[in-house]
Write a structure and sequence with these properties.
It is a single chain. By secondary structure, the protein is α/β, with parallel strands linked by helices. The chain contains ten helices and ten strands. The chain has a six-stranded mixed β-sheet, sandwiched between helices. A two-stranded antiparallel ribbon has the order 1-2. A two-stranded parallel sheet has the order 7-8. A hairpin with a 2-residue loop joins strand 1 and strand 2. The longest helix has 28 residues. The radius of gyration is 23 Å and the shape is globular.
Length: about 300
């Protein structure tokens, strides 16, 4: 009999391409991954891994079994969904993630509604940026993720995931109150070609969007400061250290000394929820998506 947890380890290795990546995805040590794979090789009587420089690669037998493992794990997900659907109640555990401003702007209302309407459902929240959140849903580490993309830069969504829109989130330019453009009704991003920018952390999806958008307008941005936390960026703006793009979701309260001005050619983030399509029938998934959509609908009037 093939052990399900060892097949899950093999699936993680196939997805991540390394022992360290599989260990990180499964939240275990690298030695635990190696031990599970050694036991799986003994079970099947074939070599599944081979050395590849300093790392490893799947053998032909390893790739073949990994393909079966992916299908087996998907069937397990479907079985769990069918059992939960038959029970007809949103109960058990649900792992939900959101990017930081959605965690602040959407999750409190969502979690409150789920607690009131589904007292048997235990929801665990994780703050994740869009790209790692999608990967976590694919791996099965997260059940439901709130993610975003921008009007001109979509977020790649792999096959096998379902999605539903939540809201469009307008973004303004935040600048010090003494900035020459602070009293404008509208601005263009090009107006800030000579300003220093305060942006997201290197490699984050929103940072890459800003670089892509400004360079597309012929501007090589002068990045002065990077900060992961939204209100840290606004605090730096209040100190007169630059300007930043400031989406409205989860933005308030604004610090003193900051002015936000809408962009003439509307700059918007599309906020939506993703989950594994093979878990679509789980009442807990449906309950979470419905609660998120209700929370998003409550915010649309503020957009």
């Amino acid at each position: 009999m093939l052990n399900l947890e060892r097949l899950r380890t093999l699936d993680a290795l196939a997805r991540h391409g390394s022992v360290s990546g599989a260990a990180a995805g499964l939240h275990v040590t690298t030695s635990a991954v190696s031990q599970q794979m050694a036991k799986l090789e003994r079970e099947v009587g074939q070599q599944l891994l081979a050395k590849n420089g300093r790392g490893v690669r799947l053998t032909d037998a390893g790739r073949l079994l990994a393909e079966h493992a992916a299908r087996i794990l998907s069937q397990v997900e479907l079985a769990q969904a069918d059992l939960e659907e038959q029970r007809g109640k949103a109960v058990g555990e649900l792992r939900l993630s959101a990017f930081p401003t959605a965690m602040r702007g959407l999750l409190p209302a969502t979690l409150s509604a789920l607690r009131a309407d589904h007292p048997g459902l235990r929801v665990g929240c994780h703050e994740l940026e869009p790209t790692p959140a999608v990967a976590a849903v694919v791996r099965g580490d997260i059940d439901v993720a709130v993610v975003l993309d921008w009007y001109n830069k979509p977020l790649p969504i792999p096959d096998g995931l379902a999605k539903a829109p939540l809201l469009d989130d307008p973004a303004d330019v935040a600048m010090p109150a003494a900035h020459p453009l602070a009293d404008r009704v509208e601005v263009d991003l090009e107006d800030f070609a000579d300003d220093e920018w305060i942006t997201w952390a290197e490699g984050e999806f929103c940072h890459e969007w800003l670089m892509f958008t400004l360079r597309g307008k012929g501007i090589e941005p002068r990045v002065a400061h990077r900060a992961e936390e939204h209100h840290t960026r606004l605090a730096l703006v209040a100190a007169g250290l630059g300007v930043c793009v400031a989406p409205r979701l989860g933005r308030d309260p604004m610090p003193a000394g900051v002015r936000t001005v809408p962009v003439r050619q509307r700059v918007r983030r599309h906020v939506y929820v993703v989950w594994r399509a093979d878990a679509d029938r789980r009442p807990s998934i449906r309950a979470a998506v419905e609660a998120l959509r209700a929370a998003g609908a409550g915010l649309r009037g503020h957009a």
